[in-house]
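Hello,

Our lab assistant flagged a job as stuck in the queue for most of the afternoon. It eventually completed. Since we weren't sure the result was trustworthy after the delay, we are filing this so someone can double-check. Below is the sequence as submitted and the structure that was eventually returned. Let us know if re-running is recommended.
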Amino acid sequence: MTNRLNASLERVLPEKRLFLRSDDDSRFVRLRPLTQLAAISGITLAFGWTLVASSVLAIDAISAGSSRDSIVITQSAFEERLAELSQERDARAAEALAAQNRFAAALDQVSQMQSQLLQSEEQRRELEAGLDVVQSTLRNAISERDSARAMAQATGVQPDTAHPEEVTAALDIMTGELRQAADERATALQEAEAARQTVEELSLEREQILARNDEILTQLENAVAISVEPLDDVFRSVGMDPEDVLETIREGYSGQGGPLTPMGRSTRGNAALTNGESKANQIIVTLDQMNTYRIAMEKLPLAMPVKNSFRYTSGFGRRWGRAHEGIDMAAPTGTPVVAPGDGVVTFAGRQGAYGNLIKIEHELGVETRYGHLSRIRVRVGQRVSQGELIGDIGNTGRSTGPHLHYEVRMNGRAVDPMSFIKAASNVQ
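-- returned structure --
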C-alpha cells in the first residue's frame, strides 16, 4: 500500500534525495512522496494552529484591556439611573407630604365646621325650647285675656289690650331668630358636605401619590438588588467570601460622630408611609453594600499586568509533573510591566528560579508576583497605583525565553491569576 501511495503521489511530489558528503564518504537520504506529504501537512497544521492561537490571544488581550473601562462606564450609567430614580422619589415624597398637609388642613376645616354645626344645632334647640315657652305663655295670656274680657263684660269695665300686643311682638322676634338659625344650619350642612368631598378627593390624590412612590421605591430596590449579584459572583469567582470582604472593608471605613439631639416621636401612625420608609431603608443598605463592593474592587488586582501584545505560553496548574503557580506571558525583552492594582512593594530583587522578582502586597490578603524581569523599576516599601510601570519583561532565572511569570496569592496560597483577570468582565 505504501508503494502504491508513493506511486500515485510521484507526479505531484517526485522523489528527492538529500546528499550528505564527508571527506571519506558520501551518503544520501531519500525523501519519498509520502514522506514529503507528511512533512508538508505537519508544517501546514503547525502554522494554522499558531495563527488561530495568536488570534484568540490577541482578542483576549483586547477584551481584558477594555474590561476596566467597561466597568467604569457601566457604573457611571447605573449611578446616573440611581440619581434619576432618587430625584423622582424625592419629588414624589414632597408631593405626598404636601398632600398630607392639605389633608390635615381639610380635616381641621371639617372639624371646625362640625363644631359650628353642633353649636348651631344647640342654638336651634334653645330657640325651640324658648318658642315652646313663648307659646305656652301666649296660650296662658290668651286664656287670661278671654277671662278678663268675660269679667269686663260682666262688670262693665274696659279690658287692657297692651299685654297681648307685647306677647305677639315677642313671638315675632323669636320666630325670626328661629328662621335665621335654621338658615345658618342649612348653610353649615352645605359647607360640611363640600368639605367632605374635598377630603375624599385629597385622600384619593394622596393614595395615588403613595402608590406611585411605592412603585418607584420597588423599581429602585429591584435595580440595586440585581446590580449586587454580579459583584457577589466576582468575589466568589476569585475564592473570596463576600461577607468577609464586606466586613473587612467596613472595619476600615467605620468612622462616626456628630452631636446627638433628642429623638422626636410621632403619635400619628401611617402604614403606607411606614412601608415606604422600610423600602427606602433597605435601598440605602443595598447601596451601602454596593459602595463597599466598589471600594473592595478598587483594592483588588483585576487589571492586566501587560498592556502590550503578548502570547500566553503556559497556564496555571501542573506542568511537567510539577505545580506551575502562575501564568506565563511571552513578549519581547523590555516590554513594560504595570501594576494591576494599588499596593505596596514588599520585595524587589533577585530570587532563585524567579530571576529578577517583584512582590506587591495588596489589601484583602492578596499578593502578586512578577518574575524573570530584565529590569526592576520600583523599590521595597514603595506604594504603587494601578497602571504604574514597575518593571520590564526579561529572561532571567530559570527561563527558556523572554516572558513574564505572573502569580496571584491569597493569604499565601497560589490561585489562578486568570480568575482575577476574567472577574472584571462579570460586572459588565
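-- support follow-up --
The delay was a queue issue, not a problem with the job. The result is valid. Confidence is low (pLDDT under 50) at residues 269-273. The radius of gyration is 48 Å.
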